[in-house]
């Protein structure tokens, strides 16, 4: 039997990148799509606990849920795929998930949730507002999916993939990278005044500056390359853990 593949996203069930990704992965297995009923960008790793979740079948093997990307993974794995998937792919997200973005991203969090469930996973994002790089993103996703299905991924590890918004012919290859770090400033928060004279704020202004560091995801994108970053679920800082052992006696 072909391996089961679950495809999800945070842009909603009607997003073009979702269905292009599903089509690209169909030659590799039995693909089921489970996605939010509307956009859930920046939902992070939220689960819906205080209201019922409802599932609608949009068409054969395509379902939408009135919840978050993490909800979609849970219901997809436990109820809708008819067996544990061999792979979960989240994307293709419209917009980058570079550096610190992974902590906010619903796209990446869906892959985190499925990794927690013990399923090899990847998140795929297209850097930029356009769609000329969608072919390249889907091709790269299919190549990585084939490798993951054959070789697997290390324990508690997922892949965060970012693809430049460029035609396939202009992609300069792929690079294994680390996460970059953004430089945040006051321009990140936009302050304006509404017609009644009250101030309001909009998060997500200018965030284009990055801390200088080699071999990062944003650097690869600037070079016209696909960035592939392995992310690990264990956030423990083991070096500091050992350093802080000396505090234990002071905390009695």
Q: What low-confidence regions span 5 or more consecutive residues with pLDDT below 50? A: none
Kindly identify the CATH topology of the largest domain.
Answer: Stationary-phase Survival Protein Sure Homolog, Chain: A
Run of helices and strands: EHEEEHEHEHEEEEHEH
User: How many individual domains?
Assistant: 2
Q: Helix proportion of residues, in percent?
A: 25-40%
* Alpha carbon gyration radius: 19 Å
Outline: globular
The major sheet is characterized as: 9 strands, mixed
CATH architecture of the largest domain: 3-Layer(aba) Sandwich
What is the average of the pLDDT values? 94
Give the termini distance in whole angstroms.
58 Å
**What structural category characterises the helix and strand content?**
alpha/beta
The CATH superfamily of the largest domain appears as Survival protein SurE-like phosphatase/nucleotidase
Q: Which CATH C-level class of the largest domain is it?
A: Alpha Beta
How many E strands? 11
Total helices: the number is: 6
Proportion in β-strands: 25-35%
Q: How do the strands of the widest beta sheet line up side by side?
A: 3-4-2-1-5-6-7-11-8
Walk me through what this model shows.
This protein has 252 residues and is an alpha/beta fold. It has two domains: 4-180 and 216-251, 3-Layer(aba) Sandwich (Stationary-phase Survival Protein Sure Homolog, Chain: A); 181-210, no CATH class. Helices cover 25% and strands 25% of the residues. The protein contains six helices and eleven strands. A nine-stranded mixed sheet has the order 3-4-2-1-5-6-7-11-8, with helices on both faces. Strands 9-10 form a two-stranded antiparallel sheet. Helix 1 crosses helix 4 (134-151) and helix 2 (69-80) runs parallel beside helix 3 (106-116). It starts with a strand and ends in an 8-residue tail after the last helix. The mean pLDDT is 94.
């Amino acid at each position: 039997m072909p391996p089961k593949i679950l495809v999800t996203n945070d842009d909603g069930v009607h997003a073009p990148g979702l269905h292009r990704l599903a089509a690209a992965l169909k030659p590799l297995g039995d693909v089921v799509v489970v996605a939010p009923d509307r956009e859930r960008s920046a939902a992070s790793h939220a689960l819906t606990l205080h209201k019922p979740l409802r599932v609608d079948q949009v068409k054969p093997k395509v379902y939408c849920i009135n919840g978050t990307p993490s909800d979609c993974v849970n219901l997809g794995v436990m109820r809708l795929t008819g067996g544990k998937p061999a792979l979960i792919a989240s994307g293709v997200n419209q917009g980058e998930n570079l550096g610190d973005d992974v902590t906010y991203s619903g796209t990446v969090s869906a892959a985190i949730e499925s990794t927690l469930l013990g399923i090899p996973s990847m998140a795929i994002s297209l850097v930029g507002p356009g769609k000329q790089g969608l072919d390249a993103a889907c091709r790269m996703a299919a190549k990585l999916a084939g490798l993951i299905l054959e070789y697997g991924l290390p324990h508690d590890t997922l892949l965060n993939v970012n693809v430049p918004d460029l035609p396939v012919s202009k992609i300069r290859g792929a690079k294994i990278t680390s996460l970059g770090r953004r430089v945040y400033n006051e321009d990140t928060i936009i302050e304006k005044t509404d017609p009644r004279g009250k101030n309001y704020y909009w998060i997500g202004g200018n965030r284009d500056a990055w801390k200088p560091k080699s071999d990062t995801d944003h650097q690869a994108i600037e070079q016209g390359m696909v960035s592939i970053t392995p992310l690990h679920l264990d956030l423990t800082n083991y070096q500091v853990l050992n350093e802080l052992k000396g505090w234990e006696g002071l905390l009695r």
